[in-house]
């Protein structure tokens, strides 16, 4: 794609001033419309060293109200960030609805550097490209506008700019030894960048390759592109909101291998365990899990445990028995409640990405991202379009974590409708347990059949070979605790064996 850029383009000062003035004025006024429409905008800048990214970013943000944007400069990942999935730190940079994130380098810089330094082979390079395309598509599907710039200059132009910067005491610090190394391997970098931009030039996040040999030309191209992209996105958003909602689209769970699972009505709930056997097996299993936790830490293997289940099914007690076997320095329990206003102003997966553990650690989610296809779906907190595409997005999310190296264990804690009623009544009639029962629990119970249908779909479309569901029979809570521990231990042991 880079060969399409005309590096000889120039704009005279006389032509630049009036057009730039008008474009800046329009961009400034567009920010208020972006806020009102709750349109989230990501503007990312990639480009050669000394191509002018910093000065253009500075010029762009001068036109914006500082209360509505953040600028992020992406450096090489530090040791802590290296212990998280590749996209983790970039999910943390996405803006709220109605605001801007301006990125001085992005996820692309990391790929370019690693590919050029031979840290990524062909398959790994392709895998990173696929992850980025998925990431950008998920954001775009949620309404994010992604504007991607690459500022292009020739090797000769870059060398001359480096020399000019070094000639001044005030600016020579801006040219590093690594900058000169990159100039020497310009052709190699060119090949990587050209392929990367070609393979990530998607309809939802196209590249805008800008000739930056002439700074006035570069500035005008950037402003024209931003203004046009925002105006188009606002018009498209308005049109979409005015159109009748489409219904009946088939569920898309993505191109993943599913594990066949029974419907909840097919699961026998007669499983029981006596007290003596429970105590003996609990002690042995917790001891085993404790030893495995040490090995996970040493081998830097992360574990993600997702708990879903009926109200009063026994999730809390189940989690407590798992946590009792773990080193408190190496795990966290993340209780998921209804999203607050700040969380609702982001892509729904954003708040879960924030809690992904570092390598060697365990994260236990007490309720999860599956709320999207259960409570949010049933209560109308998201559109049909949103919950139908969530199955694919969730599978992609879990695949990203699995490929990173995580062990993913997902439990549905299952009880009968009659047993739930008995436990609800027990809570209401026991003073020290009364805090556990709420009006919302009773309202949810009235929609049992709707929930059961949604849960069956959830398990059917998201029980993948890399993150299968386990239905845990919890009519007898003690049996459920033993089963969960056994399933978790088995999953960890299989992962450790595979790793060896």
CATH superfamily of the largest domain: P-loop containing nucleotide triphosphate hydrolases
Structural class: alpha/beta
Radius of gyration: 27 Å
Major β-sheet annotation: 5 strands, parallel
The helix content is 40-55%
- Regarding CATH, which class of the largest domain? Alpha Beta
Low-confidence stretches: none
Gross morphology: elongated
Q: In CATH terms, what is the architecture of the largest domain?
A: 3-Layer(aba) Sandwich
Instruction: Work out the strand percent.
Output: 5-15%
Q: Can you offer a commentary on this structure?
A:
- A 5-stranded parallel sheet has the order 2-3-1-4-5, sandwiched between helices. A 5-stranded parallel sheet has the order 7-8-6-9-10, sandwiched between helices.
- The chain has helices spanning 13-37, 53-61, 88-91, 107-116, 122-141, 155-166, 177-184, 186-199, 215-242, 275-299, 315-323, 341-344, 350-353, 375-378, 384-404, 417-429, 439-446, 448-462, 477-499, and strands at 41-47, 69-73, 100-104, 145-152, 207-211, 303-309, 331-335, 362-366, 407-414, 469-473.
- Helix 3 (88-91) links the parallel strand 2 and strand 3 (100-104).
- The longest helix is centred in the middle third of the chain and has 28 residues, at 215-242.
- The protein is built from 19 helices and 10 strands.
- Helix 4 (107-116) runs antiparallel to helix 5 (122-141) and helix 11 (315-323) crosses helix 19.
- By secondary structure, the chain is of the alpha/beta class.
- The protein is 51% helix and 12% strand.
- The protein has 2 domains: 2-242, P-loop containing nucleotide triphosphate hydrolases (Rossmann fold), CATH 3.40.50; 264-499, Rossmann fold, CATH 3.40.50.
């Amino acid at each position: 794609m880079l060969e399409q850029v005309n590096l000889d383009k120039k704009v005279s000062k006389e032509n630049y001033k009036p057009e730039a003035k008008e474009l800046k004025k329009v961009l400034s006024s567009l920010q208020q419309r972006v806020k009102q429409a709750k349109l989230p905008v990501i503007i990312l800048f990639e480009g050669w060293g000394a191509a002018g990214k910093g000065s253009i970013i500075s010029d762009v943000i001068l036109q914006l109200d500082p209360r509505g944007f953040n600028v992020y400069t992406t450096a090489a990942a530090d040791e802590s960030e290296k212990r998280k999935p590749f996209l983790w730190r970039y999910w943390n940079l996405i803006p709220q609805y109605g605001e801007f994130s301006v990125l001085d380098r992005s996820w692309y810089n990391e790929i370019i550097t690693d590919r050029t330094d031979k840290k990524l082979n062909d398959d790994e390079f392709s895998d990173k490209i696929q992850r980025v395309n998925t990431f950008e598509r998920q954001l775009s599907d949620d309404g994010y506008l992604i504007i991607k710039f690459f500022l292009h200059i020739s090797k000769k132009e870059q060398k001359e700019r480096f020399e000019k910067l070094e000639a001044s005491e005030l600016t020579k610090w801006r040219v590093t030894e690594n900058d000169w190394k990159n100039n020497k391997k310009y052709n190699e970098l060119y090949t990587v960048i050209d392929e990367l931009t070609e393979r990530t030039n998607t309809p939802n996040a196209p590249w805008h390759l800008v000739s930056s040999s002439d700074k006035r030309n570069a500035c005008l191209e950037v402003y024209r592109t931003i203004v046009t992209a925002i105006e188009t996105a606002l018009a498209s958003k308005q049109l979409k909101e005015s159109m009748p909602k489409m219904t009946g689209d088939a569920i898309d769970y993505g191109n993943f291998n599913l594990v066949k699972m029974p419907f909840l009505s097919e699961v026998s709930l007669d499983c029981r365990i006596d007290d003596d056997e429970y105590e003996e097996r609990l002690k042995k299993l917790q001891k085993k899990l404790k030893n495995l936790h040490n090995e996970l830490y040493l081998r830097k293997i992360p574990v993600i445990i997702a708990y879903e289940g009926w109200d009063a099914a026994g999730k809390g007690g189940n989690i407590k028995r798992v946590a009792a076997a773990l080193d408190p320095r190496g795990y966290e329990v993340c209780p998921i409640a209804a999203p607050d206003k700040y969380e609702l102003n982001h892509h729904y997966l954003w708040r879960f990405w924030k809690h992904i553990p570092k390598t060697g650690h365990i994260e236990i989610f007490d309720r999860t991202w599956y709320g999207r296809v259960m409570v949010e779906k049933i209560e109308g907190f998201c559109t049909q379009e949103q919950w139908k595409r969530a199955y694919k997005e969730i599978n992609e999310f879990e695949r990203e974590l699995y490929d990173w190296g995580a062990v993913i264990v997902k439990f549905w804690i299952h009880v009968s409708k009659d047993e739930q009623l008995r436990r609800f009544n027990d809570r209401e009639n026991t003073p020290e347990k009364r805090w556990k029962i709420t009006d919302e629990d009773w309202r949810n119970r009235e929609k049992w059949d709707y929930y059961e249908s949604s849960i069956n779909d959830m398990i059917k479309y998201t029980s993948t070979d890399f993150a299968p569901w386990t239905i845990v029979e919890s009519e007898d809570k003690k049996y459920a605790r033993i089963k969960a521990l056994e399933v978790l231990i088995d999953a960890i042991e299989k992962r450790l064996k595979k790793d060896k």
